[in-house]
Design brief:
globular; 36% helix; 25% strand; Hypothetical Protein Pfu-838710-001; Rossmann fold; 3 domains; five-stranded parallel sheet; alpha+beta; eight-stranded antiparallel beta barrel; 434 Repressor (Amino-terminal Domain)
Length: 440
């Protein structure tokens, strides 16, 4: 791409986000004059600045430099987890399982292990935040390099697997250090968390399979079982809020744990058709202040719009994020039984999202809600707070299968289960509003 074409693309991406040249410059630590020179073709940013620029514009470096190859499916997933969770073995299972399904599987190695094994350890730095800054910078650069090469491959389906993602590092930092790293890198938590398509967390053996916990298979691991369990909680909390976070616990033997991981990834990829099982409960309005203080709870804002569709389908687009940082999705759902449905979800850029809004179904009101995502004891809960309600909320629990028992934390007071009830489907709420509660 020559300077003139790059400048035009930069201008279009900046205007899509509604940023001035000065605002974009502040995000990445340069002057508005530098932005102006890049947009007019008088100059181009360096390699380090390109990474910051791509993050600020919510695209990859490859997407910033040139459009993605047409017809190629590249899925970015993160495999994370506590110490001694089976991550190394999991990567081998993923390679075997998805190569057989026709995917070119590409792995981005764990950055922390590379640095520590190479002598660049956090305890050798004057302050841990400097190690974390370098680690995340290297992580993002590696991801972009692998994604660029993957985009040039001839395979039609590519699975890009991150052996830990950039947000794993939040678990090793204080809030102040994390804020420092975000400012230094010119990025934010939403951008780091949600630029991956899915995140799969493997629970440490120190929680539920203590007899198998060992330090022998990773020279960079130093945690005791108690420290490993605590770190596992911090890692889950760091990723909580991602739209597709799945937690694989130690409720079965190790082989079945790996099979459950492969099943979750297959479901996400639609290999075969993805199935989602969930239970839905009407609850009393929880104490939001206490909820927000929980370490494994994240708040996101959601705007959901229903589009014109066939009678047996539900098609919607969704804006999701916080602090003026958003990502966009299109979802197509088809019910197959009570509590179970086929679901296909694709990411959209902001322009595609705005184009889809033009196809909004006038029979349905736009839904705006605040969602609290909570991870507890290996289960993922979503609590939806609607501005129309001051005494009720909706709690959803995502399950592995129809037979998994449901455990509701004591802090939530269940009014009754509403799984499968038409009146409590989001589409029905958008059309008719909320039903009255009996006895009120």
């Amino acid at each position: 791409m020559n300077d003139y074409h790059f400048g035009n693309r930069l201008l279009c991406l900046r205007e899509k986000l509604g940023l001035s040249q000065g605002q974009l410059g502040k995000l990445i630590g340069v002057s508005n004059k530098s932005i102006s020179k890049w947009e007019t073709g008088a100059a181009k940013p360096g390699v380090d600045t390109l990474s910051k620029l791509a993050l600020a514009l919510q695209v990859s470096v490859d997407e910033l430099m040139q459009p993605a190859a047409a017809g190629r499916q590249i899925s970015r997933i993160v495999i994370t987890g506590g110490p001694c969770a089976g991550k190394t073995t999991a990567l081998s299972w993923i390679q075997n399982a998805f190569s057989e399904k026709g995917y070119q599987v590409v792995f981005v190695p764990e950055t922390a292990t590379e640095l520590i094994s190479g002598g660049a350890a956090p305890w050798l730095c004057t302050e841990g935040k400097h190690f974390q800054t370098g680690l995340i910078r290297l992580q993002l650069a590696k991801e972009e390099a692998f994604a660029y090469i993957a985009g040039k491959m001839s395979a039609g389906k590519i699975l890009l697997v991150m052996d830990r993602g950039a947000l794993d590092n939040k678990a090793y930092m204080s809030p102040l250090d994390f804020q420092y790293v975000m400012q230094t890198l010119g990025t934010n938590e939403v951008a780091l968390r949600d630029h991956y398509d899915a995140v799969f967390h493997l629970v440490t053996a120190a929680r539920g399979a203590e007899e198998f916990y060992t330090l022998a298979n990773n020279q960079a691991r130093t945690e005791t079982p108690e420290q490993a369990a605590a770190l596992d909680d911090k890692l889950i909390a760091a990723w909580t809020g991602h739209p597709h976070l799945r937690i694989i616990d130690n409720s079965t033997d190790f082989n079945k744990k790996m099979l459950r991981l492969i099943a979750e990834i297959s479901s996400f990829l639609g290999e075969p058709e993805p199935m989602e099982v969930e239970r839905k409960f009407l609850i009393q309005m929880p104490n939001l202040r206490k909820l927000e203080q929980l370490p494994a709870c994240t708040r996101v804002n959601i705007v959901q719009t229903y589009l014109k569709s066939a009678a047996d389908e539900e098609v919607r687009v969704r804006q999701r994020g916080s602090d003026r940082h958003f990502i966009y999705f299109k979802t197509i759902k088809r019910a197959v039984s009570r509590g179970k449905r086929v679901e296909v979800e694709t990411r959209l850029n902001q322009e595609e999202y705005l184009q889809h809004l033009m196809q909004a179904d006038p029979q349905y009101r736009q839904i705006q809600k605040t969602r609290y995502c909570l991870s507890r004891n290996g289960t993922y809960y979503e609590i939806d707070i609607y501005p129309q309600l001051d005494d009720r909320a909706i709690l959803e629990v995502e399950l592995r299968d129809e037979h998994q028992p449901v455990s509701i934390p004591k802090m939530f007071k269940v009014i009754r289960e509403v799984t499968g009830e038409e009146a409590y489907l989001n589409r029905s709420i958008a059309k008719h509003g909320f039903p009255e509660v009996e006895g009120k």
